[in-house]
């Protein structure tokens, strides 16, 4: 299988439970909750998306023809003097449109721990080490278990009781970016104080100005 990749880069994870951890990010191109036409983006389920996942024109973006080739490219970005705690975050767009066991096996064979960031509309292989689901109100949630459920807040129709019954270790609220970020952040803070089963997730990479 070939893989359509928007970009690959080395940074620190900026949000969620693993915030602050060194990671290679591999961003897959394309998303099943977006029509693919810019004019129709406002009609998408998650029209608040803040990520460019279209095309293959980013850093090391390309159509990779096989899993081993993509895994080797990811590995080259990890510091050569440190082979411990190798961590890759597979994200998108929606990575589960393309991720398969060949890629997972190729990354595991070179000692990478694999995390995935997904909208949860496609089931994830159990062989992925860390599953972070970011559900979107209006889409059908298929992946109902994992390590981290991270909800972009607010979304109209969100009821926390609908998610707390799912099999996740961590439940996080992340303020929606955009022109109302300040208001959304205060609302998210108040929500977590009133619903202490939820934790606040901040996009620290944006605060610190890192990629």
What do these coordinates show?
The chain has 211 residues and is of the alpha/beta class. It has one domain: TIM Barrel (Alpha-Beta Barrel). It has 5 helices and 9 strands. Helix 1 (67-76) crosses helix 2. The chain is globular and about 45 Å long.
How many individual helices? 5
Described by strand count, sense and barrel closure, the largest sheet is: 9 strands, mixed
Question: Which structural class fits the helix and strand makeup?
Answer: alpha/beta
The strand line-up of the biggest sheet is 3-1-2-4-5-6-7-8-9
Radius of gyration: 17 Å
Helix content: 10-25%
The average pLDDT score comes to 90
Could you name the CATH class?
A: Alpha Beta
Uncertain regions: pLDDT < 50 for 5+ in a row?
37-43
CATH topology: TIM Barrel
Distance between the termini: 29 Å
| 3D shape | globular
Q: Write down the secondary-structure element order.
A: EEEHEHEEEHEHEH
Beta-strand segment tally: 9
What is the CATH homologous superfamily assignment? Aldolase class I
The assigned CATH architecture is Alpha-Beta Barrel
Strand proportion: 25-35%
Into how many domains do the coordinates divide? 1
Summarize the structure.
20% of the residues lie in helices and 26% in strands.
Strand and helix layout:
Elements: E1 3-12, E2 22-28, E3 62-64, H1 67-76, E4 87-91, H2 101-109, E5 113-118, E6 130-133, E7 145-153, H3 161-164, E8 167-175, H4 181-194, E9 199-200, H5 204-208
Parallel strand pairs: 2-4, 4-5, 5-6, 6-7, 7-8, 8-9
Antiparallel strand pairs: 1-2, 1-3
